[in-house]
Design a protein that fits this description.
Layout lengths: L1 H21 L9 E7 L1 E2 L4 E11 L2 E5 L4 E6 L6 E2 L4 E5 L2 H36 L5 H33 L2 E3 L4 E6 L6 E2 L4 E7 L3 E8 L11 E6 L2 E13 L9 E8 L11 E7 L8 E4 L4 E3 L2 E7 L6 E5 L1 E5 L3 E6 L6 E3 L12 E4 L10
Parallel strand pairs: 1-24
Antiparallel strand pairs: 1-23, 2-17, 3-12, 3-16, 4-11, 5-7, 5-10, 6-9, 7-8, 9-11, 12-15, 13-14, 13-16, 14-15, 17-22, 18-19, 19-20, 21-22
Pfam family, one: RND-MFP_C
Keywords: Coiled coil, Signal, Transport
Subcellular location: Cell envelope
Amino acid sequence: MRRRAWLPYAVAVPLILLAACGRKAPESEAALPVIALPVQAVDGLSYGRFPGEIHARYEMPLSFRVSGQLTARYVTAGDVVKKGQALAQLDPADAGNQLAAAKAALEAAEHRLLFATQQRDRDEAQSKQNLISQLQLEQTQDAYASALAARDQAKQQVELAQNQSRYTMLVADHDGAITSRQADVGQVLAAGQAVFGFAWSGDRDVDLDVPESRVDGIVIGQTATVTLPALPGRVFAAHVREIAPAADPQSRTYLVKLTIDQPGTLLQLGMTADVALQSSKPSGATVSIPATALFHQGEHPAVWVVRPADATLELRPVTIVRYGERDVLIADGLKAGERVVMQGVHTVTAGEKVTPIAPPHPEDAPQ
């Protein structure tokens, strides 16, 4: 009976020991694979790239100061002209007639002034001898003053007629190039009506159309670099000279003009340009990350940084300098070389152990 009572215990103990030997130790937590790459420093903080077009610093329409019929045109679009060169001619007949009439009026006024001067001299001599009344002397002096004023007025009319006659010839007031032709021979033109488009030689500008969301970051004097597809390998320094105070009513963009510091002779009007504006803010230690790496901790921007010591994640606040189309510039919070989660930032948590991997597609890597 005692043997049968101990039998269940003898069988249970080996089974318990066997079960204990077969139980495995708990596995360590598996690392989560994440796309994470080292961030890169930016050489000179770039505010953004914009397409532009080369223009002359001074561009304006050329027109006659007087009205008339266009009888001759000596240049056309694309011609390079020198200062003082004749460009077009109006019919000079009317201006010539006005000049002749003004000269005739001046000659008559000079004769009247000569007679009035002689009469004044006689009356003043007779007045000293009390041969004429004081009233007659005053009338003579008044007639002389009127004749003198009429002569001066006639002189001014002659000068005006000479100018009007000279204005029938349109001449270049500066070295430059004809950019457009806006009038044809035989056309009757009003004073001030454009005949040619004209661009001065010398200084060259780059014109940009900047969206209203980006114009606040641009200031007068801001530096930039300019490259042109037509001149590969050439880089030109420039700076912002003018910012339009109002947006274009059609495109809702702001015209920004940059002056090229040393244009040389290679830059031609109308060339397309790629302009890289430098930030107006101090660059400091800045890094660039893809826009997909940005995470928001409440209202504050942050990024997931992989700690090098234990490969765990840390959510770190950062200071944004500029938002680009595909990238973000960080001014504070990151250092070059630190590994940052580039994609899937909403699927990870702080302190999580990760295994950094490269993007599956090379084009997804930050440039």
